[in-house]
Amino acid sequence: MTTPDAATNDVPQPGPHDLPDVSGLVVGVLGGTGPQGRGLAYRLARAGQKVVLGSRDAGRAKAAADELGLGIEGADNAECARRSDVVIVAVPWDGHRPTLEALREDLAGKIVVDCVNPLGFDKKGAYALRPEEGSAAEQAAAILPDSRVTAAFHHLSAVLLQDPEIERIDTDVMVLGEKRADTDVVQALAGRIPGMRGIFAGRLRNAHQVESLVANLISVNRRYKAHAGLRITDV
């Protein structure tokens, strides 16, 4: 009896998928003055990526970029979007819709990577919110019909991302999107950060549970005083 995992001579086994070279792409980070945005900007720039850090206030963005160094540049959100090939959305959930609505034209044609987690907090801790569209990523896709919306980088610790003493962050990044060419680019960007690996995790309709899982990780981190991430096994 042959199990589904068994390799046979009759069934060709898939080889490693070659991801594109993304080293020449400019990556913009909206919400780049917040902990997650700063951390992602720092890690990508440290890996050799050209990064533009965006904020509603250009002065704050430039100050944060100067503090991070590594050739990172600061700009207001609109200029950040216009100058970038790939734009990571790392704004707070309550600013998600208005930020994207204001940048609809500037983000047209761009790969947009939404890493926003809709969460609420009460005395019991963090809990997931369900946007009307289903998820933050689906809300982004609805607001940005002319952009190539993906979702990724949800489960990363801002503390680890910003710590210059940490060389590697051993975790997987779940990447969701509608077009393989777009998710391949995001997987390749994740893979530029030492220790990270981008894993395709489905279409945007599956983004809600990925975003919601952050509430569980927050509970793990509080209980164990950790900075937990995820690993996908057998891939």
UniProtKB/TrEMBL annotation:
Residues 1-22 are annotated as: Disordered. It comes from the Bacteria. Residues 27-118 form the Pyrroline-5-carboxylate reductase catalytic N-terminal domain. It holds the Pfam family F420_oxidored. SUPFAM superfamilies: NAD(P)-binding Rossmann-fold domains. Keywords: Oxidoreductase. PANTHER family: DUDULIN-RELATED (PTHR14239), F420-DEPENDENT NADP REDUCTASE (PTHR14239:SF0). This is NADPH-dependent F420 reductase. It comes from Streptomyces thermolineatus.
